Amino acid sequence: MIRLIIMTDFTESFGYDLLRGILEYSRDTSPWAVKRMPPSYKSVHGMQAVIGCARQWEADAIIGRFETGDDIISFRKSGIVAMAQDFKTRFKEIPNITSDYIRTGRIAADFFLKKGFRNFGFYGYRNVCWSEERCEGFCGRLREKGVKSPIHIHTIGHLEDFWLYGPENLNEWLRNLPKPAAVFACDDTQASNLIETCRMTGIKVPEEIAVLGTDNDETTCGLTAPTLSSINLNVRKGGYEAAALIDRMVKEKIYEADDILIEATSVVERMSTAIYPSDNPYIVKILKYISQNITSKITIDDLLRQVPMSRRLLEIRFRQDTGQSIHQYITSMRMNLFAQKLLASDEPIADVASRLGLNDTRNLSRIFRQAKGCSPMEYRKRHK
Fold first, then answer.
1. What pLDDT is recorded for position 255?
2. Do 50 and 42 form a contact (C-beta atoms < 8 A)?
3. Tens digits of residue pLDDT in 128-178
4. What is the CA angle 20-343-262, rounded to 5?
5. Element (H, E) at 336
6. Is 234 left (phi over 0), alpha (psi -120 to 50) or beta?
7. 20, pLDDT greater than 80
8. Which of 134 and 381 is assigned the larger pLDDT?
9. d(C-alpha 111, C-alpha 163), whole Å
10. How many whole angstroms separate alpha carbon 182 and alpha carbon 271?
11. Is the C-alpha dihedral spanning 338, 340, 345, 346 positive or negative?
12. What is the rounded distance in angstroms from the CA atom of residue 5 to the CA atom of residue 78?
């Protein structure tokens, strides 16, 4: 039996999703014993107390939020496998649970560019690898796509101040942003704080500033007003792979290995980015109608009842503003939603499709393959 200590923040969904992945691995192999330890234990008692606790409990391994200067080599001296959740930086001496943060930033940039934004901002931390690299990927992608205007960056210096609203002149930065603006936040916590600061400052979200977070913490995203759009991370899969690596390291008595990379899958869109790429109020109304009824059957007649336009004029204006036909746009939205639900549920694929109104099972796999490059079953296996 593997005995594992996990020292992370369980007030956020990341820690629990990581544990779920570890649980799934233990169910597939053999039972594990897991001891949860809050990061405050290290803050109050020090690193030596953590090492002492691990020895006393006879732990085989520990996953922890370690910092530069922590004596992580002492775990190895005690025969304990250590793995770092990259809290602020990555380690060379032990494997890290990390991600391709630059790619996450590029996903955010592509999402906002598709919506037609011309003004962009990033809000995050200084001297924190996952925040700085998300900013790098975001800004780099915007420049690749020809954005010439300034990208407005606002960062705070202390990760411990994650709960503060409006730190370090955030209010002034938000007021001075050219609007409408698209702001990518380093994580859901800071995206939520940003939206709350907008509310206190009288800035409308998403009409003046659209906000996108990362981690897709459903509790944080759902309790933010308006609800927060976020980039989903496949943390459970990362937890499963981390458990498999720990199992091998413990059995083979090795202490160095490649990092575990948690994959960013897609944007889960909610109300904080529900702004549409059109200056035509009729097209905006059509886009809102499609978004609100995406799980129902939508016909052209349904759309024509919403606006005083002929069918031909609606089709022309819609393609001009979105770059897609009405049918292509609806299909794309449905396949994106279907892909999200495939990863969020263990239900049979046919049941997931049925709940979204995708009842044409004969053509569903073909359409999904055109959109995502693989079948629904392959997509679930690859990303879940």
1. 95
2. yes
3. 999 999 999 999 999 999 999 999 999 987 666 555 555 568 999 999 999
4. 60
5. helix 326-344
6. beta
7. yes
8. 134
9. 27
10. 13
11. positive
12. 14
By the 8 A CB rule, do 94 and 70 touch?
A: no
Task: Kindly state the percentage of the chain with pLDDT values over 70.
Answer: 97
pLDDT of residue 291: 84
- Which residue, 273, 260, 303, is CA-closest to 117? 273
Beta bridge partners of 268: 230
Letter string b/e over residues 201-224, b meaning 16 or more CB atoms within 10 A of that residue's CB: eebebbeebbbbbbbbbbebbeeb
Peptide bond into 31 cis (omega under 30): no
109 in Cβ contact with 141 (< 8 Å):
yes
Distance between CA atoms of residues 362 and 149, nearest Å: 46
Give pLDDT tens digits for 214-241.
Answer: 999 989 999 999 999 999 999 999 999 9
66/46 Cα distance (integer angstroms): 11
Strands 32-37 and 96-99: unpaired
**Residue-wise DSSP of 109-120:** HHHHHHTT---E
Q: What is the DSSP string of 304-325?
A: HTTSS--HHHHHHHHHHHHSS-
pLDDT in tens, 63-108: 999 999 999 999 999 999 999 998 889 999 999 999 999 999 999 9
- Whole-number Å distance between alpha carbons of 78 and 76: 5
DSSP calls for 41-97: HHHHH-HHHHHHHHHHTT-SEEEE---TT--THHHHHTT-EEEEE-SSS--SSS-EE
CB atoms within 10 A of CB 370: 10
The kind and range of the H/E element at 106 are helix 101-114
The answer to whether residues 53 and 67 touch, using CB atoms and an 8 Å cutoff, is: no
pLDDT tens, 330-364?
998 899 889 888 887 788 999 999 888 888 877 89
Question: Among all chains, which residue has been given the structure tokens 């391709």?
Answer: 100
The CA distances from residue 355 to 26, 338, 347, 367, in Å, are: 31, 10, 11, 17
